[in-house]
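quick one, 97 residues, struct below
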Amino acid sequence: METRRVDFVQFTVIEYRFRPEAVFPLHHHAEEQVVIVLEGSIRFVLDGRPLDLEPGACARVAPDVPHGATAGPQGARMLNLVSPRRREEAGPVVSAR
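---
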């Protein structure tokens, strides 16, 4: 997985590029997040519910809700908008929920 991150005053933007079938493990964090799929497909798990997302689709993640993703057979590229701004010391926590 490749990432590019830009921090602004009030929010963080992160671009993720996933190889085919790559997995981002179930985790949670204190920030609200919006996921927008740009290319490929993602099986996004949000609070235990699977969502199949194609280009142009988006999902909202409320604070502290467990979520994770698995890229489709051609991989995927997505943007995550995180608010408030992501602080290094307050990043994602791998979830056992």
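The mean pLDDT is 92.
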